[in-house]
Amino acid sequence: MLAAPPGLGRTALLCAAAEAHRDRGPVLYATAAPAERAVPCSGLGALLGVGPAGASPGAPPPGVTPDALAGRLREFADGGPLLVCVDDAHVWDAASQAALAFAARGPGAGSRISFLLSAADGTAFAGLPTLHLAPLDEGAASALLDRLAAGTEGLDPVVRAEILREAGGNPRLLGGLTGCLTPDQLAGRTPLPWPLPGGEAVLAAHAERLDDLPDRTRSLLLLAAAAQEHEPEGAGADALLLLRAGTRVGLPRAFLDRALFDGTGAGGLLQRAGSRVHFAHRLAARAVLHHAPWARRRAAHELLATLLAETGDRGAVDDSRARDVPGFPEARAARTTALPLAALVQRACAASGPDAALATGLEAVAVAPFPHAARAAALARAALLSTGPALRAARFAAAAEQARLAGDPPLARALLARTGPRTADAAPADSAATPGVAVTDPAPGLAPYVHGMLALRSGPVADAHEVLLAAAALLVPHDHRRALDALLGAAEAAWAAGDALGYLNAMNRLARTPADEGLEHYRAGMSAVLEDRTAEGHARLRRCLAPAGDPGDSAALLRAGVAALVLGDIAAACRAGARALAAVRTAGPDALLPQALEHLAYAELRAGRHAGARAHALEGLHAARRTGQPNSSAHLHAVLALAASVEGPAEVCDAHGDAAMAEAGPHGLAQAVTLATWARARADLAAGRPGEAAARLAPLIQAGPGRGHFATRTLAVPCWVEAAVLAGRLPEESRALHAAVDEFAFWAARAADPGAPAQLARCRALLAPADEADARYSEALARHEEAGGDFERARTHLLYGQWLRRRRRTREARRPLRDALIGFQRCSARAWAERAAGELRAAGEPVAATVRDTAGEPLAALTPQQQRIARCVAEGATNREVALRLSLSPRTVDHHLRNVFAALSIRSRTELARLLSS
């Protein structure tokens, strides 16, 4: 049995199976006819009246009963292999279904008859082996779309994303949508229609089930489908609202309770999750609306609007805001803006055509405190009600911005695809323009601004930089706030790309745009630091550490964290990061959550709090994936690689480093590449592979085309010096090493990083002649005492102890090596602790009682591969994510994970995480 909703390929699979079987034997193939469902045994007639390759075994005579089907099939097979294929068996008459189910369950001893049935669900054929078909995954759907669009000039990326999103992995719908769009629409030259055409056949197939349902069930399904229209996509409908609406139209309370709260009584199409009601299949709600007569749909929307207006919506809205919108009559504004946002959306759904006043009312009300997702839905409805193309495009662009802020980039791109080319030669019909006067675009620069902000988080950052600069130029005369955001975004894109000149260019343009005092101090301070006016820059940046104004301004708090890191005030950076995270979690937007977690995690890394950095970066990684921000994922993978280069194991560091490189390379994220490379080199050092570490870091730090990020490569200089010296590269690379140390000294003098002087002294000790090294190491350790930080101090102790032991000062070497071991253990740097223990052992001191005994670890009984998988799963990674990290297949990960559970006598991921944290 193949079970799946319409459009997922049941018929295609049956046809392929039938064609493959014809070389082995005959095939009986029948497709159910819904029109004959009321005729008893009509299905049997359709099946037995058609033979293989057009031959007919004869229509069943009137005396053939359903229970005789198995016998007739055995007679027809005549001992040979026979394949019986029935498509859409769920629409057969009841007698034929019973006969088919009986025959399929037991064709008889020695029979060579096989059955392959397809149905919308397996309800009528319970007990048969059933394969439930799922929608195509993203890769398969994208490959199918490429084949479908092969004959066109080119498929615009935004149009591609919208088609894939609308199809939801349904291959039949994917073909219908693609076939109904013009070449210009597919290429992105003209805007896409809303809704996309081409899904009518799939929706009609979904709606076939509705005809057999009772009237009250159809009424409830229509209300449920209509109630989802004012909700964010995927949120379902409010069960209590549906209860009130059903009661208002006279549906029995007992029926409503069963359908909405017990999960029965709605034809199996509704499911409850808490206080929300969802359709069992994504397309079912659209099919219900598509199938219902317009008068009934309109009545449902108007009823819901009335109910929502009676009780109000979450969040109060100032009615006076609507009066400030040009072209909106005051009388109409006072009436419509008194309704909550959801009620206005329902009113819009009930509109039979464009309605300028209602559209303007929706736009006026779609503001805070309503969530960004609700505002996006309202603005999209306002666009559909607009009569002028320019205003319609502007409202679609505004809806796209709200969808982006809500953390839904696919929806944002879908809305942008409706903006189309911008025109300024005609006034929109629903504007307040003077007749005969040309009207410019009501929102110039808004669409490219949203495009650029989306690219900043999910595309090539060089493209984002240029688009945001162009958008800022368009926005400056009309939208001051967004112009500032566009320039800040362009600067951020240049920073991520390692383009210092591009960053300064964006900041210099920002200087020509009036800004508040805090932002101006940040701009001037960052520009001064990059232009080597360090004292001036630090003075400006110190004035950003405590942002004035709104204490919940997450953007200002994130800038404060960046300023603190540049100043070297790591404690202030951690405080600003924690406050920014709290502000985002309290007031949003959701799209900013990955950045808030990334900034805090990086500050914690600099503070030496690796466990906290790892926890926040893992949460940020999940948030970045949920909100469709692969660029943020790359940065967070780099942070996780840095944390793993301290804590271990090395495999986790490698996996996160590889993931960061894979996502950062195509999008030009030089900062993420630099940090990931540094992390892997540090893990090589911990494992005693200085040659590999030096080879990784040399191109990053030395001059040349492969040089690392301008602001972060200097942080890796101490690692490179250590690796090159330990690998014996000092003679041939002496000049480059000394030049790098001089650059690090210049940076340390400007950055005011408390740990930089100690690391500088350590670098000079590594490069110093034997008669000077001792004093240099002593200086470095003294500076570590002033700066703090267990990990870097332990590294200096380790290098000093190694240096002493290699000069046969074994007795003196034991103390710094012992201090190194204890320091590494204190900050959970396991691989580094093992390296220190080996050096201490070589110095003649037993360490069996000092190092941690691994025999008693929870994972000691597992193989190394199982240990790696268990640690990743305990961190919260899915099987697919573990496979990506460790370069395995998901099936292999699943196999190993089952063995892990068996070996540890546990049954869940939660138990595994608890076991490893104890």
TrEMBL record:
Pfam families (alphabetical): GerE (PF00196)
Keyword Repeat in record: no
Location of the HTH luxR-type domain: 855-918
Superkingdom, taxonomy of origin: Bacteria
InterPro entries: Sig_transdc_resp-reg_C-effctor, TPR-like_helical_dom_sf, Tscrpt_reg_LuxR_C, WalR-like, WH-like_DNA-bd_sf
Keyword Nuclease in annotation: no
Endpoints of the signal sequence: none
Keywords: DNA-binding
CDD domains recorded: LuxR_C_like (cd06170)
Record-linked PANTHER family: TRANSCRIPTIONAL REGULATORY PROTEIN DESR, TWO-COMPONENT RESPONSE REGULATOR
Protein name in the entry: Regulatory protein LuxR
